[in-house]
């Protein structure tokens, strides 16, 4: 039987670089008011056109993403020659029979509604009637097949989506993938039983298959980036844009969230079978919201915000989606001021985490910094202060934050007087002082003075955790202390110690013991800790595939490593941050089983795609916003762009090419306009005497900032110049002779006439720039410089016994179907 093709777009969920996608988008909403933002502020076209756009993974046409190819077939499947319709690959006619299986590859992680065009169907009506068609989706090629990958953790793989195929005008309504036969006796026109006979098995032909991308619903054109990054490192370019694409895929319609049905059950009472999945739980107000991951959990998790919000701001500026995420957390604030561990379906049963509670406060800072939305901050300020009091009230006589919850980012050992939580609180207090200043000193002077005094106490408390033998801080003052039975010097806690800017040496004399109130009369043998030493000691632990999260054995966590990136930047060791990005995030793109386009939640220390938080390897999320740290770190570290007042009214630029880059450029847009930095290596050529103050090699910086802003450009040692935005050209350079910086008489970098021989957007733009020093001398691109190679390291070794100890396969207490039934019955009885 053959007829005109029909197209179908069934509603499906999930994310897949191999077969499938997520749910639908929505309309843009608007927000008015002074300092507010709206979806209408998002650009329809890229703000920085140039050759770097080739790294953007978002589709040219959001409504139609076609597969790159038929990746694999098995059983009764035939594939015709590729059709010429549209001239695109992946448009071959595929015919699938009983037991057949076909897998389409999209060549990158995607999200949306899966649609296909039915070319025809053959086989007897009775044979096709009641046939089941199974749909499977996978982000990783490792799990492409009849079974999907996994969203839950109670069985190894999710159940496939099974659709019963009926007949409608001769066409199967839903067809894709493997099929199971169900013979049935036919009926003739008189209603009499026909003689049973052998029937022709059903075959279905699919002509075209595509995905209507429904992620980032606030962007009609997903390629209309508001920021960019471009450097001499192909890998770093890919990493930056992989982070941006991960954040786009993790931004969804709020009505299509909640992929964990065990957690949804606590609210909606669903009776879905173990292993089933869907994404139709409402997780916030608005029409777009940023979540933890594209496949799962599709929930608002505040722990991601410190890394994700700046990445969103400098790539797409989709800050309304961020605001909606923050709003739902504040809306679910508990009576005592505590904020929920995560957004709905959590927040109904008192779920709480000390660290994630504070991450909501840090997310508040990032949102206001990049958006300039002070009206929103004023409306939330009382809630913010109540939440802050919850954390400050947990600092006791040891001058450390004594956590009341073991919940964190699934890492074990979050107990007692915790170093990570203490350093995060110090950071929150710094940001709180800044927010208060933006509001015109809204808090009483006594309150802000108390915050500053508490920061000094926290520095004293953190000193209790310092381990001279390792040159790092321990996890707590108990069993995970320097000499405890489970001694641990965590990646997250030490990273936060540097990020926080806390005083690392409040005294040269250590405490007699972590719990003692007395200090030793003998100074630390190697002196007090320094930021550089802690940064170096963290680097010394790296393995071939990245930085181990020793607080969570067997794990390499891009989340904790994202904090380590920022820690190295805080210590002034940008080279360490760039090297780690090349190692760990390079592997996240090129390692076996990863997507080559988005950034996974985590992986095993030996490089395996399994994330040891879960026993099922298939459950790893391959598009997780908390892994996007390099997108922020490369912009703030290499380009050195840092906003210091809302929306960039004040800023500073301190670029650093490190030992790995010959040139870099990039920028982003806020409501003030475009911020852009170009930095490249230079050398002096010519035979004249010239007017320049130096010879040899160095680097040059061009800064472009919008009118209405002002800031400083910092280069070299103690070199700083104030800059007013809106000027046509802001050029600075510095030359290095024998390791010493040569300066102008006033101690500032020199400013000279710059000419461009060709259009600046050309791929080798840095070669076209010449700086005239006068007298026959010029500064040109240093094409003789060579980048440092990344150091080779050993592969990490898995401790299998320890890894299995941390697996969790059951839902949390109180979340099972049976326990919820009992709770509901008790509630009814109470009424």
From TrEMBL:
The keyword Nuclease does not apply. Transmembrane segments: none annotated. Keywords: Glycosidase, Hydrolase, Signal. Residues 289-476 form the Alpha-L-rhamnosidase six-hairpin glycosidase domain. Residues 191-200 have a biased composition (Basic and acidic residues). Coiled coil: none annotated. This is Six-hairpin glycosidase-like protein.
């Amino acid at each position: 039987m053959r007829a005109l093709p029909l197209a179908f777009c069934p509603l499906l969920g999930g994310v897949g670089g191999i077969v499938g996608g997520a749910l639908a988008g929505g309309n843009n909403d608007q927000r008015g008011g002074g300092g507010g933002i709206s979806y209408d502020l998002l650009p329809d076209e890229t703000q920085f056109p140039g050759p770097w756009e080739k790294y953007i993974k978002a589709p040219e046409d959001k409504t139609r993403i076609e597969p790159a190819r038929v990746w694999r077939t098995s059983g009764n499947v035939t594939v015709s020659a590729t059709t010429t319709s549209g001239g695109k690959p992946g448009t071959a006619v595929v015919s699938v029979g009983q037991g057949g299986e076909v897998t389409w590859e999209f060549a990158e992680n995607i999200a949306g509604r899966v649609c296909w065009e039915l070319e025809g169907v053959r086989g007897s009506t009775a044979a096709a009637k009641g046939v089941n068609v199974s749909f499977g989706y996978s982000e990783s090629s490792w799990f492409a097949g009849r079974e999907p990958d996994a969203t839950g953790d109670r069985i190894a793989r999710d159940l496939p989506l099974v659709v019963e195929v009926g007949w409608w005008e001769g066409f199967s309504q839903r067809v894709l993938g493997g099929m199971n036969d169900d013979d049935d006796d036919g009926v003739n026109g008189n209603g009499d039983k026909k003689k049973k006979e052998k029937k022709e098995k059903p075959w279905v032909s699919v002509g075209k298959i595509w995905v209507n991308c429904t992620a980032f619903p606030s962007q009609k054109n997903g390629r209309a980036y508001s920021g960019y990054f471009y450097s001499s490192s192909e890998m770093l370019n890919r990493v930056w844009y992989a982070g941006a694409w991960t954040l786009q895929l993790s931004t969804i319609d709020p009505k299509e969230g909640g992929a964990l049905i065990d957690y949804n059950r606590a609210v909606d009472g669903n009776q879905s079978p173990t292993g089933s999945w869907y994404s139709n739980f409402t997780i916030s107000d608005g029409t777009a919201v940023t979540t933890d991951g594209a496949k799962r959990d599709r929930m608002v998790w505040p722990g991601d915000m410190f890394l994700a919000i700046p990445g969103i701001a400098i790539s797409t500026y989709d800050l309304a989606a961020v605001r909606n995420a923050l709003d739902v957390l504040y809306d679910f604030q508990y009576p005592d001021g505590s904020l929920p561990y995560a957004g709905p379906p959590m927040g109904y049963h008192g779920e709480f985490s000390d660290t994630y509670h504070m991450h909501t406060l840090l997310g508040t800072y990032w949102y206001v910094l990049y958006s300039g939305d002070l009206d929103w901050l004023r409306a939330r300020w009382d809630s913010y202060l109540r939440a802050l009091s919850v954390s400050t009230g947990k600092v006791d006589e040891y001058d450390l934050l004594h956590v009341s919850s073991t919940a964190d980012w699934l890492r074990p050992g979050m107990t007692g007087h915790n170093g990570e939580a203490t350093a995060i609180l110090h950071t929150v207090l710094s940001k709180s002082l800044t927010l208060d200043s933006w509001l015109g000193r809204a808090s009483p002077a006594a309150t802000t003075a108390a915050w500053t005094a508490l920061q000094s106490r926290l520095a004293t408390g953190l000193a209790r955790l310092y381990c001279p033998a390792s040159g790092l801080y321990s996890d707590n003052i108990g069993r995970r202390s320097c000499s405890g039975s489970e001694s641990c010097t965590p990646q997250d806690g030490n990273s936060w110690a540097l990020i926080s800017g806390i005083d690392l040496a409040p005294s040269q004399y250590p405490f007699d013991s972590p719990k003692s109130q007395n200090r030793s009369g003998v100074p630390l043998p190697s002196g007090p800790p320094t930021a550089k030493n802690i940064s170096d000691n963290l680097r010394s632990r790296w393995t071939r595939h990245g930085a181990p999260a020793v607080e969570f054995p067997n794990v390499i966590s891009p989340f904790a490593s994202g904090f380590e990136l920022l820690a190295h930047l805080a210590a002034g060791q940008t080279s360490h941050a760039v090297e780690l990005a090349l190692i760990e995030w390079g592997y996240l793109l090129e390692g076996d089983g990863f997507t080559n386009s988005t950034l996974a939640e985590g992986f095993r220390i030996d490089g395996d795609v399994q994330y040891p938080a879960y026993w099922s390897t298939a459950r790893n999320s391959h598009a997780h916003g908390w892994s996007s740290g390099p997108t922020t770190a490369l912009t703030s570290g290499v380009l050195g762009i840092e906003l210091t007042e809302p929306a960039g009214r004040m800023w500073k630029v301190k670029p650093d090419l490190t030992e790995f880059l010959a040139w870099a450029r990039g920028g982003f847009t806020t409501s003030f306009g475009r911020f852009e930095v170009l930095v490249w290596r230079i050398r002096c050529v010519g035979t004249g005497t010239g007017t320049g103050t130096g010879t040899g090699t160095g680097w040059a910086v061009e800064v472009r900032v919008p009118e209405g802003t002002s800031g400083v450009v910092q280069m070299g040692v103690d070199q700083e110049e104030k800059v007013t935005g809106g000027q046509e050209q802001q050029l600075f350079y510095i030359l290095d002779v024998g390791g010493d910086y040569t300066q102008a008489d006033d101690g500032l970098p020199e400013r000279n006439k710059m000419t461009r021989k060709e259009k600046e957007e050309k791929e080798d733009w840095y070669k076209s720039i010449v700086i005239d020093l006068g007298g026959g001398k010029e500064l040109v691109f240093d094409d003789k410089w060579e980048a440092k190679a990344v150091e080779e390291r050993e592969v990490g070794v898995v401790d299998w016994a320890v890894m299995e100890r941390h697996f969790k396969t059951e839902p949390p207490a109180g979340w099972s179907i049976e326990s919820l039934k009992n709770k509901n019955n008790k509630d009814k009885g109470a009424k």
